[in-house]
Amino acid sequence: MIEIPGQCFDGASSAATPAVLRVDEAGLVTLDIWPGHLPHALSDLEISERVGNIPRLIRFPDGAQFRTAQNDQVDQVLARFGHARGSRWVHRLESHLRYVAIAVVVMVIASFGLVKYGIPYFAKVAAQTVSAQTAASIDDGAMQVLDKAFFAPSKLDPATQARLRARFDRMTTVAEPGFKYELLFRAGGPIGANALALASGTIVMTDEMVQAAKNDEELVSVLAHEIGHVVHRHSLRRAFQSSVVALLGVMLTGDVSSVAQIVAALPVILVEAQYSQNLE
């Protein structure tokens, strides 16, 4: 007979009563405080996993609960009657500082590898599986975000805009079909001389960029570069990476409400995501 001291809860109130859990030679379990308490097999009980020295909780089918800090005795009972669990190994690892330190180092290295290499790789694969038509619809509203936050209407003369759009249209005729290729001009404001590509195929070139160029050929080179970002779905890749990292943060913190914020901010992510040096 094995006796384990602890506290019992009858399932009807939160009051704890000192009790002893008894396990006989056949592995049947009873509580001493209730003389008429029917014995239960260990397999009928729900026994919490061992976590350090936190008291274990044993739940009976009739609703009674038994709590004990005698973790070693509980482990001995489980091992004796063939109910030992892998958590004993976990407890042993947790009890040795060296193993904890090794686990922390491994976790840091694995996390770095995931963020540095794993997520970018899977983002690349995911982006390449997205059709041009789907990509063109993902950043709906992104241009409105840009116009509201950064840009102002272009002040370039219509002739210059028409000339550059004609060159742009000729370039997109040989690019991957399905994207909504469009060249827009905007006054850059805080962005200054710049050009960027949205996932839909829209290219935005600032007035400052046009004015800084010595000739149209320099601007054509910039446009070709931005079309490359569209075709290779670099904007989507960066958006996927940012979203996955944010979702991992949600999983770690439990802040489920952030998922809605991520979805709502997708156009901003697409706009503000800077291409990495490798993508450039």
Keywords:
11 helices; alpha+beta; PH-domain like; 280 residues; single chain; 11 strands; rod-shaped; seven-stranded antiparallel β-sheet
Describe the 3D structure.
The protein folds into two domains: 2-83, Roll (PH-domain like); 113-280, no CATH class. It has helices spanning 71-80, 87-94, 97-129, 132-138, 142-149, 158-172, 207-212, 216-231, 234-253, 258-264, 266-272, and strands at 2-9, 17-23, 28-31, 40-41, 46-47, 56-59, 65-68, 152-153, 182-187, 195-197, 202-206. The chain starts with a strand and ends in an 8-residue tail after the last helix. It has eleven helices and eleven strands. Helix 5 packs across helix 11 (266-272).
In short:
With 280 residues, the protein is an alpha+beta fold. 49% of the residues lie in helices and 17% in strands. The chain folds into two domains: 2-83, Roll (PH-domain like); 113-280, no CATH class.
Helix content: 40-55%
Q: Which strand order spans the largest sheet, edge to edge or round the barrel?
A: 4-3-2-1-7-6-5
Overall structural class, as computed from helix and strand content, comes to alpha+beta
Structure summary, number of beta strands: 11
The tally of structural domains comes to 2
Shape: rod-shaped
| H-E order | EEEEEEEHHHHHEHEEEHHHHH
What is the overall pLDDT average? 82
Main sheet makeup: 7 strands, antiparallel
**What is the CA-CA span between the terminal residues?**
73 Å
Number of helices: 11
* Beta-strand fraction estimate: 15-25%
Residue stretches low in confidence (pLDDT < 50, at least 5 long) are 267-277
- Rounded to an integer, what's the Rg over CA atoms? 32 Å
